[in-house]
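Just curious. Protein, please.
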Amino acid sequence: QVQLVESGGVLVQPGGSLKLSCAASGFTFSSVHMWWYRQAPGEERELVGFISSSGGVSLFLESAKGRFRISRDNTKNTMYLQMKNLKPEDTAVYYCNARLEGTSYWGQGTQVTVSS
């Protein structure tokens, strides 16, 4: 079955860097576009960005531009979110998402907390 497992979320100080991973299984990862979302406490889930099956990236979160980078390794069935210059407002649960034949799949999320 389809599984998405996020990892890498920790407590980090403002200005720090972090790399999140999303390990995928149960489908042909190299053929599927992937998304990163995040949800801050008390807020709705918001789209961070997207990476196509061939590696084309679009960042939708204005505040992430210049600080976040999405990549994927199709040989490892894994997508990444590299974040730098982290700010307290980046505190959220980060989720990866895949859409297969009309069904949207989510991982369990990984908590990123930016605080001194």
Remarks:
- The mean pLDDT is 96.
- DSSP finds no helices and eleven strands in the chain.
- The CA atoms of residues 3 and 25 lie 5 Å apart.
- The longest strand covers residues 92-100.
